Amino acid sequence: MVKILIINPNSSADMTKVIEKNARDFAQDDFLVDCVPNPTAPDFIVTYDDISKTAPGMREILLEKQEDYDAFVIACHGDPNLDMLKEISQKPVVGIAEASMKIASMLGHKFSILLTGDRGVPAKENLVHRYGMERFLESIIIADCKGEGWKNQEGMIQAAEKALEETMAEVIVLGCAGMGHVTEAMQERLGVPVLDGVTCALIVAYGLAKKKIPLSKKRQYRNDNR
Amino acid sequence: MVKILIINPNSSADMTKVIEKNARDFAQDDFLVDCVPNPTAPDFIVTYDDISKTAPGMREILLEKQEDYDAFVIACHGDPNLDMLKEISQKPVVGIAEASMKIASMLGHKFSILLTGDRGVPAKENLVHRYGMERFLESIIIADCKGEGWKNQEGMIQAAEKALEETMAEVIVLGCAGMGHVTEAMQERLGVPVLDGVTCALIVAYGLAKKKIPLSKKRQYRNDNR
Amino acid sequence: MVKILIINPNSSADMTKVIEKNARDFAQDDFLVDCVPNPTAPDFIVTYDDISKTAPGMREILLEKQEDYDAFVIACHGDPNLDMLKEISQKPVVGIAEASMKIASMLGHKFSILLTGDRGVPAKENLVHRYGMERFLESIIIADCKGEGWKNQEGMIQAAEKALEETMAEVIVLGCAGMGHVTEAMQERLGVPVLDGVTCALIVAYGLAKKKIPLSKKRQYRNDNR
Amino acid sequence: MVKILIINPNSSADMTKVIEKNARDFAQDDFLVDCVPNPTAPDFIVTYDDISKTAPGMREILLEKQEDYDAFVIACHGDPNLDMLKEISQKPVVGIAEASMKIASMLGHKFSILLTGDRGVPAKENLVHRYGMERFLESIIIADCKGEGWKNQEGMIQAAEKALEETMAEVIVLGCAGMGHVTEAMQERLGVPVLDGVTCALIVAYGLAKKKIPLSKKRQYRNDNR
Amino acid sequence: MVKILIINPNSSADMTKVIEKNARDFAQDDFLVDCVPNPTAPDFIVTYDDISKTAPGMREILLEKQEDYDAFVIACHGDPNLDMLKEISQKPVVGIAEASMKIASMLGHKFSILLTGDRGVPAKENLVHRYGMERFLESIIIADCKGEGWKNQEGMIQAAEKALEETMAEVIVLGCAGMGHVTEAMQERLGVPVLDGVTCALIVAYGLAKKKIPLSKKRQYRNDNR
Amino acid sequence: MVKILIINPNSSADMTKVIEKNARDFAQDDFLVDCVPNPTAPDFIVTYDDISKTAPGMREILLEKQEDYDAFVIACHGDPNLDMLKEISQKPVVGIAEASMKIASMLGHKFSILLTGDRGVPAKENLVHRYGMERFLESIIIADCKGEGWKNQEGMIQAAEKALEETMAEVIVLGCAGMGHVTEAMQERLGVPVLDGVTCALIVAYGLAKKKIPLSKKRQYRNDNR
Question: Residue B65's CB: how many other CB atoms inside 10 A?
Answer without folding.
Answer: 16
